[in-house]
Design brief:
Layout: E1 3-4, H1 8-22, H2 28-38, H3 46-63, E2 69-70, H4 72-104, H5 114-123, H6 128-151, H7 157-171, H8 175-182, E3 191-194, H9 201-209, E4 216-217, E5 222-223, E6 231-235, H10 241-249, H11 266-269, E7 275-279, H12 286-298, E8 300-301, E9 310-311, E10 315-320, H13 324-329, H14 335-341, E11 344-347, H15 351-357, H16 359-375, H17 380-393, H18 403-417, H19 426-429, H20 435-441, H21 445-460, H22 463-470, H23 474-492
Parallel strand pairs: 1-2, 3-10, 3-11, 6-7, 7-10
Antiparallel strand pairs: 4-5, 8-9
Helix pairs in contact: 1-2, 1-4, 2-3, 3-4, 4-6, 5-6, 6-7, 6-9, 12-14, 15-16, 16-17, 16-18, 21-22, 21-23, 22-23
Amino acid sequence: MTTNQLSETQRGFFKRINTAAFNNPFSEDYVKNKAELADLRTDTEELALNQAVLAKLGAQLERCSKNCKLDKEDARLVEQARLFRVYLTFHTHLDDYIETQSKAGDQLTALPIAGQLLHALSAIGIEQRQAEKYIGLFYQTRRAYYFISREILGLSPCMQHLRMHLWNNLFTHNSHWYLAYFCEHMEEFSTLLLGATGTGKTRIAQAIGRSNYIPFNERTHQFEESFTRSFQSTNLSQFPASLIEAELFGHKKGAFTGAIENREGVFARCSAHGAVFIDEVGEIDDTIQVKLLNVLQDRAFTPVGSAKKQKFQGRVIAATNQNIEQLLEQGKFREDFYYRLCSDVITLPDLHQRLSEQPEQELRLLVSSILRRTIGTDDDTLIARIESLIKKNVPDHYHWPGNVRELEQCVRGICVTGEYKPVTKPLLQQSPENSNYLQAQEMTAQQLLEAYCTQLHQRFGTYEKVARISGLDRRTVKKYIQSGLEAVNSSDQ
């Protein structure tokens, strides 16, 4: 066989295919490159783009003679193009399988196209062990795209940037590095999510936790586990301080009063290919922070009441709605713990920022999504009517303190009552720490507590969290919040 080279036209085409295969699919460059390859518009749907690229790729690969030996660089480009061709051929089948596995839950299901995939990879010279890895990577790629594109909605620039960031969180900023070094070692890279209440931290964590690499087993034609099981989460604000350790690490029977049986904590429930999501991590005390730090460093934990260590092989995702810099300055968050969590820090944009960047389109998209989840429809006439009522009821430049969660309740309220009353009274708008404001209002002690508790509840969303911060009993907190809202509503009459 003679050693040939690709023509400049062929080499340029395959280099662009390489870019399409490895670039972040949520970047503008990715969409532009793929559209140019397919000779289609950038707003063409993904499926149509992929089919057009697949057709052109097949034609170019046919021109590369199998009897011709290429030099090393050209051979690499052609091999990657052939792999990408296999991926594009089967990607819709993998999407169908994601739906099937989602419905099956934790019960493993066989991949129907496993035999065809293995044959296609073998036909281009991929050995079995590598073929298993590529199938795992194809599946991870489709899950990541599936969950990020469907769950992280938004047309504003800040949301587009967020989707790009999430993809890099899963595959690193360099997909070649990921493929060569990191795909089976991402548990070493923890993630910290920062953002106000209602910005969607749990949804982001789910997208990450369900998109980890899961090995494929050629014998069973199954993946090692279901992605529905691979994500384990806990919200620490739901637990009294005395039970947080048991929730995280589990406990042995008799470890404390009420421990009537052995119980697994969230770390024990997480698999080797999964992720643990710890929400409200800014609330935990120094002792628990040290124990979590040890889990991240030693990859092991000890249940309450036990002396036996258990291994932890998953990834850690943590979140807080508090100002992390302020917590560090105040000594409420350990620096060593923070520096083990901050491999990647993702700050979520609030709703006010999203709407200010893309007012009309962003609101319409969110209302459509809320209606689809709530009543199973996104009728254009209904969307337009609800948008109109939101604009009528909500002041311009409203800050949406409850973020998307507040918007959801706004839409529900409008559906039921035809109106929504945002909390815009000075009592709840201003800071009780502002002495001039207090003098102007001449507030009683009860009014001050009502305002303070209501502000905290707006920010954190639960009576338990307000009680913990204020040092008040939960029932007292609830009473102050209800009486404060009643006072505001009565003043509106």
